[in-house]
Amino acid sequence: MHNKVIFQVVSLKEPCSACLITAGLLKEMLEKLKSKYCHMEVIYTTLEHIREASAVEGLEVEKLPALIVNGEQITAGGLPALGQLTALLEAE
Prior knowledge:
92 residues; Glutaredoxin
């Protein structure tokens, strides 16, 4: 039995075009993983302004979109390696 792994994607309500593309790719990647790993939960957090970033637990680098896994920031403005996410899921 695996422990639940919580993935939180933090993004801005009105991102730049590069951030919008990155967030879309990240969402697609996580949805594919979610279909394979039933112990995975994905939460999407949308900020009105970057000033709200300090209220997000686990967000240390305020570069968005960011991925936080079980309270630890994994990415800041980029895409994680699929193998990295798979390893996190299989370790739990």
